Amino acid sequence: MAxxxxxxxxxxxxxxxxVVLDAVKDLRGxxxxxxxVYSPFPIHGLDKAMGLKETRIAMxxxxxxxxxxxxxxxxxxxxMNIDWPQNIGGKPSMTWGKNMxxxxxxxxxxxxxxxxxLMVWTFLxxxxxxxxxxxxxxxxxxxxxxxxxxxAAGDGVVDALxxxxxxxxxxx
Amino acid sequence: MFVFTKKAKLFAGALTLVGLVMxxxxxxTGGHELDSHDGHATEMHAMDAHAEEAHADHSKxxxxxxxxxxxxxxxHAEEAHADHxxxxxxxEDHGAANRPWAAFMVNTIFFLGIGIGTLxxxxxxxxxxxxxxxxxxxxxxxxxxxxxIPLLGMLFLAITGSMDLHHIWHWxxxxxxxxxxPNYDSIIAGKEAYLNDTFFTLRTVAYLIIWGGAAYxxxxxxxxxxxxxxxxxxxxxxxxxxxxxxxxxxVTSSTSAWDWIMSIDTHWFSTLFGWYxxxxxxxxxxxxxxxxxxxxxxxxxLPWVNDNxxxxxxxxxxxxxxxxTYLWFSQYMLIWYSNIPEETPYxxxxxxxxxxxxITMLVLNFFMPVLVLMSRDSKRxxxxxxxxxxxxxxxxxxxxxxxxxxxxxGYHYGxxxxxxxxxxxxxxxxxxxxxxNLAAAPLRLxxxxxxxxxxxxxx
Lengths: 172, 459
Prior knowledge:
The complex is a heterodimer.
Chain A: E1 9-14, H1 17-29, E2 34-38, H2 46-50, H3 57-83, H4 96-126, E3 147-152, H5 157-163, E4 168-171
Helix pairs in contact in A: 3-4
Chain B: H1 6-28, H2 44-67, H3 73-86, H4 90-127, H5 137-144, H6 148-162, H7 186-189, H8 197-227, H9 232-261, H10 273-298, H11 307-338, H12 345-350, H13 355-373, H14 382-408, H15 417-440, H16 451-456
Helix pairs in contact in B: 1-15, 2-4, 4-5, 4-6, 4-9, 4-10, 4-14, 4-15, 5-8, 5-15, 6-8, 8-9, 9-10, 10-11, 10-14, 11-13, 13-14
């Protein structure tokens, strides 16, 4: 969802998500580059139709999970075994290995916490959705009941868009 | 339409036969031939006689157990071990005599899990009106119908147990609930109202009727639906039937686990045990279903099933591996933490004699499927699914082994004729019955209300 202000684009508005999906397939079939689609909700199969690259967020989430796992192991061993060892529940061994079952819930929670939170933040930052970021959406109607396809300007693009059932076409 | 070829028939039949022969050898040699422990019991009556001796010994140990509550089953094993070295083999023989029976039971429970897990999954599809799975319902039906065979195996074990042919469930020993007997165990006697031969066998029969009956009815209606011009009415009949079965299964899944598996360690109890057992069975079933669907797809029997369906089945496999681990750990951690003498013996045995198996089982059942199936792509690639399936199936076989063996056989465990033969026997029967069921009806339901949705399913 990169900025497209520098290159001239044509924006077409639609009223139905199925029409948009078909339009994207149609346009790409004709060799027209679909730069972006704005929709009030996720459209099933649109990522494939647009030919978007596969996300790498899963790998990032896995890494964040491993970070969380390591942090949890470090804090449990520091707090419970090094800094202030206590005899809890008749288990005074004070070694991390032998007390490990008690730490599993913490390890689990922190792994999930790190993976989930860092993944969401990563997603928001990559998509420029952090607080104070300039709005990306060219037409507020696409947050409500309209759909928009943005293609690079070129010969015959407007006619091709009309043929796909666009209700409104604007060059910018 | 699936074709059950002659070659496949022959293969399944041969597996069953080889398994049966191996089991016969195992039972006649007391199951000792393939490992280093030497058995004394060479035939059934001899086994019985030894078992009787074992009871006498057992009672002494029970008294010592009351005196030192923290010493229980694990120490039975230890004591038996010591006894063995000193030459008093009483308790040893008790376990040795149970060995082939317990080995048969491990395989029975393992395959029972495949059947009942699939039956439950099938019922969920109807109760939830799931659309994605409509295209593989016939595969589920074929596996679910298999459930009666291991159930008959359990019934066989329950009846032979009541006849004192073996003592997998040691509360079945004569006199153990009789205060005048030297064999008396007051804790077990307190459980007499629930754990007695008649009620136990009756419950096993009830499971056979409820589970086998549900599988039969779901299949019968599904075939009936094919013959109708339109399928809507039977869809709702199926839904009601599935809902009723799920309610009954909610109760019987727990009680069957208590009866068959938890009562082996009679003194011990865990409120989580039913779910824990169910989770293991369910993930086994989902894995087998996934592999079966994959095989059918490779042979081009299921053109309406695509990677998205496979992906969902793999997700189930992944999720329920984690679910199983969650329940396993919940049961373990509470017992480890509270450290109460009446609860810990269960894990003393499993972290003692059975430790290598126990750790391997945990790795196979949790770490391997989680690592292999975590990414989206690997859930759609057959090689990865197969790899995870091998881990999960091996792991859950071992899990059932570790649930059953320590309490029934103790120190005298091993991998011999019956462990392997029993597996081959059931595997052969499974292949035969499932393929026969698959061939008996078209693999695509004709009038199912959601069959079209299943075909269009993608994600």
